[in-house]
Amino acid sequence: MTWDPVHLPSQEGRTFVVTGGSTGIGYWACEQLAGAGARIILAARHAPKANQAMASIRARVPHVDIHHVPFDLTSIDSVRATADHIAELGGADVLVNNAGLVISPATRKTTKDGLELEVGGNFVGHFALTALVFPVLRDRVVGLGSMATAMTRLDPDDLMSEKKYRPFRAYAFSKHAVHGFAFELDRRLRAAGDARKSMLAHPGYAVNELSEKRPDVITNSSWWQRVGGFASAVVAQGKDHGAWPVVRAATDPDAESGTFFGPGQMFGMRGLPVAQAPVTSSASPEFGAKLWALAEDWSGVKFAV
Prior knowledge:
The strands form 2 sheets. An 8-stranded mixed β-sheet has the order 3-2-1-4-5-6-9-10, sandwiched between helices. Strands 7-8 form a two-stranded parallel ribbon. The two termini are about 35 Å apart. By secondary structure, it is α/β, with parallel strands linked by helices. The model has no long low-confidence stretch (mean pLDDT about 95). The protein is globular, with a radius of gyration of 18 Å. Helices cover about 40% and strands about 15% of the residues.
C-alpha cells in the first residue's frame, strides 16, 4: 500500500467538478482536492449552502480557485443548464458524480421528469450530466457506489420500482445502476480506444459524528444520529475519511479505468482506499448494455462513446 490520502499528488492545473459538493462526502472531496492544488467547480442545488462550503474551503486553502454552478439532479433541464455552465468555465479534467439522495421517502416519489426519485436522481441525472459534459471532459469520471448493492438483489426489470416499492430497495437499485453505468462506460471507452477513464468508489460506513468539525458546513445531527455515530466508531469512520476512496479514484494516475475503490478494512466499512470487487450482477455486460439504453430513453440524452 503506497497511496497516502493525506499527501496527494499535486493537482495544480487540473479542474474537478464535484456534484453535491456543499456537504458530506462531496464537501470533503472538494476540500481535499483543493488542498492538493485543484481548481474546483462545486455543483450544488442550494446557493447558500454552496457559499458556506466554499468559504470553509477558502479558510483552509486561501488561494483556491473555486466556483459554484447550480445543479438539481431531479431535473434534466437543470442538468442541461449545469453542463452548459461547466463548458463555459472551460470544461473539466474530472467529473465526480457524488450528489444523491441517501434516505429514501417512505412511499414512492418521482423526479420533475416523472422518474422514481432514487434511480431517477442518483443515476439518471448523473448519466445525463456525464453524457453532456463528456465533450469537454479531459481525464475521467467517478461514480459513487455503495455497499448497499451487496445487500439487495438486483431486479433489472423493476429498476423504477413500479411493481414494488421499498425505500432501501429503491436506494440500492440506484446504486446498482451507478455501478452498472461505471463499468459499461469503461467497456465502451476501451472498445473505442478512448484513453479517458471511468472509475467507481464507495465511502464505506461514513458518519458526520466521526469527522473533523466544519461547523458552517455539516448540519447538526439529531440526538439518535449522534449516539449511533459514536457507538459505531469501531466499524465506522468520519466522512472526511469516507472521501478518501473518491479522491483516490479521481486522482490516482496509475489506476486503470474500471477500478472500484473502497475502504480496505472491516469488510469495506473503514480504512485506507484500496481496489475492490463489485457484485457480479450490476457489473455484468448484459446489465450494462440494457441500463445504457434505458438511461438514454429515460433522460432523453443520447450518449455515444
